[in-house]
Design brief:
The chain is an alpha/beta fold and 229 residues long. Helices cover 41% and strands 19% of the residues.
């Protein structure tokens, strides 16, 4: 595993944000508790994206090893484990892992870990999911993580990115006007064509499968399926 200075810096910013500033806000956002209008659109968008990614996985994951890379409060990991998967759920934020552990039903095969999704020590997987966990990194670091994960993935790799569109750029600009409590760490949009080209170069022989874009006011995210060669 190699990590760049920029990757380490952005990862540290995420860890600080969730562990020192926003763990309570994200606990509320990812629950059924009432939230502000801004957060309600983000919650709806995230729910729709999670459902989309889940629909791209087999209904029966028995015997499959799945990595939830940047698992947050654990909703995806729980859903995959309920389908029979042996899940490794990792996040840099200890506060989010603590919430995830408390929420998870008993009896599911989930290995909750505080750590780095880039860590080769996590082993090999049949499927890897990185939902909205790469959107805070520069494109070079995104591709490096995808390359690293792709080299250890036997089946599909599903991840999301923030598409560089005029509408999203306007929304991100407006987001800076909102109270700090309603802001997330900086989102770094990327052009889809550039991202596909760089992934193809980093993972020779890989194929792109399904893709989908979810737009819900202040939530915009694009999902890609990558099938390593």
């Amino acid at each position: 595993m190699t990590t760049t200075i920029s990757y380490s810096r952005y990862r540290g910013q995420l860890e600080t944000y969730f562990d020192q500033t926003a763990s309570k806000a994200w606990e509320q956002l990812t629950s059924d508790a009432p939230v502000s209008g801004i957060r309600a659109t983000v919650r709806a968008g995230r729910d729709a994206m999670r459902d989309t990614l889940l629909s791209w996985l087999p209904a029966d994951l028995s015997g499959r090893r799945v990595l939830d890379a940047g698992c947050g409060t654990g909703a995806f990991a729980v859903a995959a484990a309920r389908r029979g998967a042996d899940v490794v759920a990792v996040d840099v934020a200890a506060s989010l892992i603590e919430i995830a552990r408390k929420r998870a039903p008993a009896g599911l095969a989930i290995d909750w870990r505080v750590g780095d999704m880039h860590d080769a020590g996590l082993g090999r997987f049949d499927h890897v999911i990185a939902m909205d966990s790469l959107i805070h990194y520069p494109v070079a670091d995104m591709v490096d993580v995808i390359r690293s994960l792709g080299e250890r993935t036997d089946g599909s790799m599903l991840f999301t990115f923030a598409p560089r569109t005029p509408l999203l750029m306007v929304a991100l600009g407006l987001g800076r006007l909102f109270p700090r409590s309603d802001r997330s760490p900086a989102i770094l949009p990327v052009r889809e064509g550039l991202l596909r080209t760089r992934i193809s170069s980093a993972l020779p022989g890989c194929r792109f499968g399904r893709d989908a874009r979810i737009s819900a006011s202040f939530y915009t995210s694009h999902a890609l399926e990558v099938l390593p060669g």
